[in-house]
Amino acid sequence: MYGKKQMKKSAINIGGQLIGSGFRPMTIAEMSGNHNGDLERAIAIVRAAASSGADAIKLQTYTPDTLTIDSRRSEFFIDDPESLWYGCRLWDLYAEAHTPWEWHEPIFEVARKEGLVCISTAFDLKSLEFLLSIGVDAIKIASFELIHIPLIEAAARSHKPLLISTGMATIQEIDDTVATIRANGCDQFVLLKCTSAYPSVEKDANILTIDDMRLRYACEVGLSDHTLRPYVAFAATAHGAVVIEKHFTISRAEGGVDAAFSIEPSELSELTEGTQLVWQSLGTISYGSLSVEDASLKERPSIYVVRPIKKGELFTEENLRVIRPGNGLPPKHYSAVIGKKSTLDIEAEMPMSWQMIE
Q1: What is the architecture, at CATH level 2, of domain 291-356?
Q2: Taking the CB of residue 168, how many other CB atoms lie within 10 A of it?
Q3: Which residues pair with 121 in a beta bridge?
Q4: Where in the chain are all domains bearing CATH 3.20.20.70?
Q5: How many angstroms separate the CA atoms of 316 and 303, rounded?
Q6: What is the pTM of this model?
Q7: What is the pLDDT of residues 73-97, one digit of tens each?
Q8: Mean residue pLDDT across the chain
Q9: CB 12 within 8 A of CB 20
Q10: Which residues are 61's β-sheet partners?
Q11: Above 80 in pLDDT, residue 7?
Q12: Whether domain 12-62+98-282 has CATH 3.40.228.10
């Protein structure tokens, strides 16, 4: 386990946006295969992400032959009946879902004009080299590739910030990956808590892991979220997540390989606004009144004289009460004042003061 004292305090710069403790979370809109093979749709997704408040757009950089081989053996078909892609051959699925590499630069050009940071997932050394050649702002490593140590080594040497999803990963596997990243000279990385189910549900999010990961690995931690609602992202923000990544589409009804677990523009707007408000609400460790509470301080209760009192008369429970507002002595002195003598004549409705007490 990496010690808490080793935690890096410097912010991570991704495409000009600083992330880390003290900065609002970066919201990443993951396009994935939601362009449905149409470049114009991909451009529309970029613009919708920007107008919905996202900070970054993320692509996935692969082709069928960079991820698998053109085989019809049984293990090259998805055999999980619960999977959205049950029965699909890996080669065919990746052929349908991939983003053509010649699209990357025009997509990134539009994204940067819209003020978005440009990120993509590298799945092998060839895709990593391509992304570096076109000036990607950060490299994402998917949960499935967290165990691809040769890829991790090369990515760590790239001098680009890294985002590492940790779905399915054991502590030992994350240990190996983090050790590899640091051994290759990279300290600008974020681990992403992730549940590798598509879609996933809130009860499987285990957001408390974010706190443990931050301490265990002495690094910043974020969230890669496959739920459809914003609550997991809000919880992650409350636990210090510095990145929130969600799959994004213009319309789930229009379909696509990842549409079923992608959020739409109105949902992205809710997510971005909500995470910022949650982050703002964290504030600092604070006791005592804030300036916005000054008016409320005056309405606290205090000790008041509620019946006329003559000089030398005793203060009693009949002529003193603890009431609002707060102009009199604090209520903690009530018992000490009872039974004492008055130093002067006091009208009813007067706030109690030490000068009244013998």
Answers
A1: Alpha-Beta Complex (3.90)
A2: 14
A3: 60, 140
A4: 12-62+98-282
A5: 12
A6: 0.90
A7: 999 999 999 888 899 999 999 999 9
A8: 95
A9: yes
A10: 122
A11: no
A12: no
DSSP per-residue string spanning 114-169: TT-EEEEEE-SHHHHHHHHHTT-SEEEE-GGGGG-HHHHHHHHTTTS-EEEE-TT-
Query: pLDDT of 183-207, one tens digit each?
Result: 999 999 999 999 999 999 999 999 9
Provide the token pair at 150: 């040769």
Closest CA to 218 of 8, 10, 21, 11: 8
What residue ranges of the chain are covered by domains with CATH 3.90.1210.10? 291-356
Length of the chain (residues): 358
Cβ proximity of 250 and 223 under 8 Å: no
DSSP letters spanning 274-341: HHHHHHHHH-----S--GGGHHHHTTS-EEEE-S-B-TTPBP-TTTEEEESSS-S--GGGHHHHTTPB
Beta bridge partner(s), residue 224:
194, 245
Is 333's pLDDT higher than 70? yes
Q: Cis omega (within 30 of 0) on the bond before 25?
A: no
Q: pLDDT by residue (tens digit) across 277-311?
A: 999 999 999 999 999 999 999 999 999 999 999 99
Q: What is the largest CA-CA distance in the chain?
A: 104
Report the pLDDT value the prediction gives residue 2, as an integer from 0 to 100.
45
Q: For Cα atoms 178, 180, 181, give the angle at the middle one, nearest 5 degrees.
A: 65
In a 3-state reduction of DSSP, which class is residue 72?
Answer: coil
